[in-house]
Amino acid sequence: GIDVGIKDLLTVSNGRKEANPKHLKRARKALRRRSRQFSRTKKGSRRREKARRRLARAHKRVANARNDNLHKVSSRLVNESQALAAESLRIINMMKNHHLAESIADAAWGELLRMIAYKMKREGKYFIQIDTFYPSSKTCSCCGFKLEKLDLATREWTCPHCGAHHDRDGNAAANIRVEGIRILRAQGLPVLRRETSSPNAR
């Protein structure tokens, strides 16, 4: 089970987290400088064309670095697992939040899930995307109790029913794993649900 995020690119149901490199944020200063240089040049001039190419190269370096990281992360997950489950994300709707839009775009969740999907298919493995509205973050992965509300800013919470303390993303990944197993079994596939840290048993 994998849960994508902004602080961490993703959290796996065995507790492992993949850091979010935030390529665009790290390159913002250089991109702004190149953009200012471009805007100060005269339209139609040779200097403007050179500045445009420098700006384009700077954006390309960011895109290449992001793509390289996504390939490494997705390949590692695929190599370690026989099946993976993730949420179906409505990224276009999520991008309407102007406070998070840039960070969501920089994380490139859609591209990450696309890479996982085709690599799993190529290897003859299973990739399940669960329903968008499945309450993975609000449900206690220990006892099944569901909170009525959980703010996005709340990163940890304690279940009022069983007292289990949860990391928001780790709890969501554990629930996504369980739902993925349920879906695979509903499709008639034999799945052994082992509670272990072995990467093949997520």
Q: Spans with pLDDT under 50 lasting ≥5 residues?
A: 195-202
Strand order of the largest sheet: 1-2-3
User: How many domains comprise the coordinates?
Assistant: 1
Radius of gyration: 20 Å
Q: Helical segment tally?
A: 6
Shape: elongated
* Biggest beta-sheet profile: 3 strands, antiparallel
Secondary-structure element pattern, one letter each: EEEHHEHHHEEEH
Strand content: 5-15%
Q: Mean pLDDT across all residues, rounded?
A: 88
The helix content is 40-55%
In terms of structural class, how would the helical and strand content be classed? alpha+beta
Total number of beta strands: 7
Give a concise summary.
This protein is an alpha+beta fold and 202 residues long. Helix content is 48%, strand content 13%. It has one domain (2-201).
List the helices and strands and how they pair.
Blueprint lengths: L1 E3 L3 E5 L4 E3 L3 H17 L6 H35 L2 E5 L3 H4 L6 H7 L1 H14 L3 E5 L25 E3 L6 E3 H19 L16
Parallel strand pairs: 4-5
Antiparallel strand pairs: 1-2, 2-3, 6-7
Structural key phrases:
alpha+beta; 3-stranded antiparallel beta sheet; 48% helix; disordered C terminus
Describe this structure in words.
- There is one protein chain.
- This protein has helices at residues 23-39, 46-80, 91-94, 101-107, 109-122, 168-186; strands at residues 2-4, 8-12, 17-19, 83-87, 126-130, 156-158, 165-167.
- The protein has 202 residues and is an alpha+beta fold.
- The chain has one domain.
- Helix 1 packs antiparallel against helix 2 (46-80) and helix 2 (46-80) packs across helix 5 (109-122).
